[in-house]
Amino acid sequence: MNTQDVLDPKSWAERTFGSVQLQDMRRTRRAVQAATNLAENPLGSLPAQMHTWKETKAVYRLRDEPDVTFAASVWVHVGDPRADMFPFFQACQATQTHFLVRAAQNRRVEVCEDEISYALTQARAFPSQASRPFEVPARHGRQARSTQLQLACGQMTLLPPRHEPRASKKPLTVWVVRVWEEQAPDPKARSRWNGSC
Question: Which of 72, 97, 115 is the last residue before a domain boundary?
Fold first, then answer.
């Protein structure tokens, strides 16, 4: 996984949607442009993300085309920490479904054949591979602010939980993404995010 492909909205959109078969190359180009706009402003409304009413209408038209189907699209299941369940990861991988889950548990991971560690411990040891400016919105009585986020990622082999009867005993290889803010005005307000995909 190339870090630049994750951080740059246009690179990510081209990699993710550039090869979808939507019956017409103009539709594929529209899907890539829409995904780029969505990634550039993930918290904005659809009209704000698309920049113009013309682009917003074009996305609605694309979505409403009868021959643009779910099978032609790349779907990613995104889960909050409550989705951090090993059987969910197994089901997604078994059906070749992409997923991104915010980590809630410090799962056991296999570092090498004879060494076991923990996912969050390993992720915190990843060196920063890239950084990106980010606007933190105002919430819970805190003012909006600008910050710089660090990004790192790497593969890990998750070991199955020892006391989960629904989980198979086969380890899972996943990508772990770590996003964090090194310098925050209030350490309690520091942004941190760990996820598996």
Answer: 72
